[in-house]
Amino acid sequence: MLSPEFLLTALIIVVAPGTGVIYTIATGLGRGRLASIAAATGCTFATVLHLMAALAGIAAILHTSALLFQLIKYAGAAYLIYLAIQTLRDRGPVRFEADAAPKTLVRTAWTGFVINILNPKVSIFFLAFLPQFMSADASRALGEILTLGGVFVGLTFVVFVLYGQLAGLMRDRILSSRRAMDWMRRVTAGAFGLMGARLAFERS
Fold first, then answer.
1. Whole-angstrom Cα distance, residue 37 to residue 104?
2. pTM for the full model?
3. What average pLDDT does the segment 13-35 reach?
4. What is the C-alpha separation between 169 and 133, in angstroms, rounded?
5. SS3 content of the chain, % helix, strand, coil (to 5)
């Protein structure tokens, strides 16, 4: 169950830079603190669904079905590469401009959701990670996995929001410099491109 070891391990995993972290930071820098919360919300909701998939056994199916796993993985890789191209063109979901309209916030959250939901490794991660901190009592398994998974999801949201808020605080300095904006656009696009390639070529 909950232990200092679980909390520390979960925190390290959540804090480590990934597609969700990079997207949330880029959103905070480009569109501000409110938009970064929308990004964090979308990413976290996808994590909730991955947890539900693990509970439903879908993660086990993904683990045993190489074709299904590869299809979802390649779709995720293609979407990340699409984000990289659109970011360079500054016409896609990750834009470096002031825009916090409700419709845009929904789109921002949706992009974060798609980024995370198209990574089948997240569901399999839950399947492999959570049992390590569960007791051997089968009657308590459901409650334990919900508790552990809930804490992990909560940590994900809090850390992502903090990343986004810190990025939002730096936003004015970034947006006031055209050179800094171009640099951020290229770095963000490069990160998405590299992660897309890594996801595509990484072994399951």
1. 12
2. 0.81
3. 88
4. 37
5. 85, 0, 15
